[in-house]
Amino acid sequence: MKKQALIVIDLQNDYYPSGKWPLHNIGTVTFNAVTLLWAAREAGDPVIHVYHEFATENPPFFAPDTHGAQIHPSGAPQDGEWAVLKTEVNAFHKTELKALLDTDDITDVTIIGAMSHMCIDSAARSASDYGFNVTVVADACASRDLVFQDMTIPAQEVHNAYMSALEFAFAKVTTTERYLKARMFPCLNGGSL
């Protein structure tokens, strides 16, 4: 029987304008993420918040025990929601995330948060490899400009490239609006997200 969970990855203070590593369009992404978070809570779906703290000295952001590493207040965990600390890019690597999903008999995961080209990508691929049905809500995920061989790749292009790669083989990629419509009216979507 299908049972789904929402995984909110790395919506932490350092990714916001006053933080050390601000992301492109983080305000809109947060609005969509919080909308999905409240929809999951209303539906009674398990919610797992994943947050990152670097285990290295002098990290560029997400330093342990700093304001920047704290989950942004707009999406803070509520009582009964899990919070999983990771020290690597992949939310499944060296964490209890998979065990939590297995304990609750989760079959389907919806992934939102940041960054599209790092933690979202690696979590979605791992979840797929573990056999979960994966949905990534693209407009509830954020990225930033990247530099490669002296070229700057704009954040939106980075994001789009990663979403298209995930959709090709690892996940269903959708928007907040389509995701919520499918949740409210499953018969219009063949009964699936």
TrEMBL record:
Any matching Pfam family: Isochorismatase
UniProt feature coiled coil, ranges: none
Keyword ATP-binding: no
Keywords: Hydrolase
Molecular function as annotated in GO: hydrolase activity
InterPro entries the record matches: Isochorismatase-like_dom, Isochorismatase-like_hydrls, Isochorismatase-like_sf
Gene3D superfamilies, alphabetized: Isochorismatase-like (3.40.50.850)
Isochorismatase-like domain location: 5-177
Superkingdom field: Bacteria
Protein name as catalogued: Nicotinamidase-related amidase
Species lineage: Bacteria, Pseudomonadati, Pseudomonadota, Alphaproteobacteria, Kordiimonadales
